[in-house]
Amino acid sequence: MVVVMQERASDEQVQKVIAKLVEMGFDVHRSTGALRTVLGAVGSSRNYDTALIEVLDGVQEVMRITEPYKLASRTFKPDNTVITIGDLRIGGDEVIVMAGPCSAENENQVEAAAAAVKRAGAKVLRGGAFKPRSSPYSFQGLGEEGLRMLRAAADRHTLKLVSEIMDISQLEMMDRYADILQVGARNMQNFHLLRELGRSKKPILLKRGISATIEEWLLSAEYILAGGNMNVMLCERGIRTFESYTRNTFDISAIPVVQKLSHLPVLADPSHGTGKRDKVAPMARAAVAAGCDGLLIEVHADPDHALSDGAQSLFPSQFDRLMAELRIIAPAIGRSICLEPVTKRGWGGSR
Ligand code: PEP
Ligand code: MN
Asked: Of 139, 271, 279, 291, whose CB count within 10 A is highest?
């Protein structure tokens, strides 16, 4: 249930309500907004009477949350969640672009991609060091060596770093290198991993599973939130359908659907969403027009020789052009993208 406290409710009144909820068997999550405190009570399997809470001093309203996910729902938290990492805000007015190679391959490749995406206006470097590949014979990533390269390139170019965690045994190491931990589509329902990430303080980028419904996706986010980590962003990356022309079917409608159901930031990954380089820019433009809070895009200086996902990786010049287009689209719906000039050569210059 959600307990909305009155605007003038004192901290003592809030504490009494929390104590009563705990006595009734709930775990309580407190959300303190600009005007009032909202308490999310989850986890009690007992029958309960909301009137027991309604009568307490300082309580404005008590609502049962009908959605199976509670903390991820807008009923619990009507205001958008904004995730802050240093000076970066994800979920605010600015559309945050995260870009870089599918995988870290070597120093030069990581450096070339980081320099290119920074110049074009990305704020976060993406790159995998642990790769979930369909075939055990495909390149599996460089592991810690790849993380070191990615971190060094991100620091050289004042970028944040997002990288995929595949197993909880990697958490301690990944924590040292990455600013955002990505949970890949194949791990969206690895509930043990999600629970452990709930104990971490690191922002989590949770991709939609390959054939997950939006409700299942939000329930996976709930695992992380219920553990106490409220820094969760979602990422639509295409789902498997009967269509075979594209690698996946990029579900742009998931963006407004999730934004209505949840307060969490929603990103879009048109690279995995389509699997084909020439489809990435149109879908990125559409995702921004649909209101996404950020993009995750694969960029490689020499995609034809990439060790993974070359066919869907943009050349730097294509990424430059896309960013210039997004700077026209975003303001049309009241959003911005990297307003400050990045280089003397200006925005959108193609090489
Ligand atoms: C990736 O971003 O490199 C990746 C493997 O994505 P997904 O989990 O969406 O397939
Ligand atoms: Mn990839």
From this structure: 271
